[in-house]
User: What shape does this take?
Amino acid sequence: MPEHGGFNKEKAQRFLQQLMKDVSASFHSAMTYIGDRLGIFKAMAQTGPVTVAELAQRTGLQERYLREWLGSMVAAQYLDYDPTTERYRLPPEHVAPLAEENSPVFLASMFAGLMPHLIVAPKVAEAFRTGGGVAQSEYPQELFAAMERMTAPMYEHYLIQQWLPALPRVQARLNEGGAALDVGCGSGRAAIKIAQAFPNARVFGFDRHAGSIERARANARAAGLGENRIRFDVADCNQLPHSTFDFITTFEVVHDAVDPLALLTSIRNSLRPGGTYMMAEVNASSRVEENISPMGRMLYSASTLYCMTTSLAEGGAGLGAAMGEAKARELAESAGFRHFRRLPIDHPFAALYELKG
Ligand SMILES: C[S@@+](CC[C@H](N)C(=O)[O-])C[C@H]1O[C@@H](n2cnc3c(N)ncnc32)[C@H](O)[C@@H]1O
Assistant: This one.
């Protein structure tokens, strides 16, 4: 028995049970990834209760594989199974999280995001030894498509409906016209929402990742928005043009940035007089003891597997996803912003800050 504390048998038992659950969930996450990737959940949302043979027919997938996969889903209680009819069913309560791409509670895309993180885990482990990190270019392209799917429901359901109404002056400016820029726009889904909501405004999206800008341009075309309404460019936003934009946003960008202070300083300089910067960051505390939750667990893990590590790969600050409000405020002050306010928005994933020069 260690000298510095007693051994609590119940605690040991509880921990073993938790670990067993975690191991089981970890293996099963690959099954959910496959279900999402192959459209099996979406097919089952359409079919109602099905036999394996019917599902194979419907999806064009191998029956033997489907049977095994269905077994994993029944064991996990994601699906119901009726042994008398040998039919499997996606319960109606599980349809939105697993099969409804645009639902605000759609979570299956998180499993698409998980796999590219796991693929680089051996390289990340090496960085624990050697320092440095893993460069953004070393991640499978699949990650960027998944990132788009993971964040899109947030922009679809909250950005225009709840977040921008917290900034009535910004709304008024964009209704008249004005110029908005989304820094680190990724696949452009937030910028496209802004362009659609404010037809008089000119909207821009910049990202230093060329693959994401290609996706953003394709998304704008699909939304029927021409270059007169929205423009996406590959750019490092640490050197934005001065006094150009009325409204600048970052969505989950600052904690990933190589040089977050240079980024915020560049954003401040790029605002026109009276302009507003809205920083959307992960809803986490800067203190680890306040992040003891499933969300905290996911955040530190994703941060180690991507956010912190891609920044460190370039000799960056590596702030990490759980930088929290305290760090955001400190950065804002250092960059010369005179106004910093957390907006009164309650969202499980996002914390929003209003900054003015
Ligand atoms: C986690 S992703 C978020 C993407 C997008 N805002 C979204 O919510 O889906 C962070 C993005 O910030 C971009 N980024 C980070 N630092 C940047 C910089 N200095 N200039 C331009 N883009 C940057 C990255 O390339 C990446 O696409």
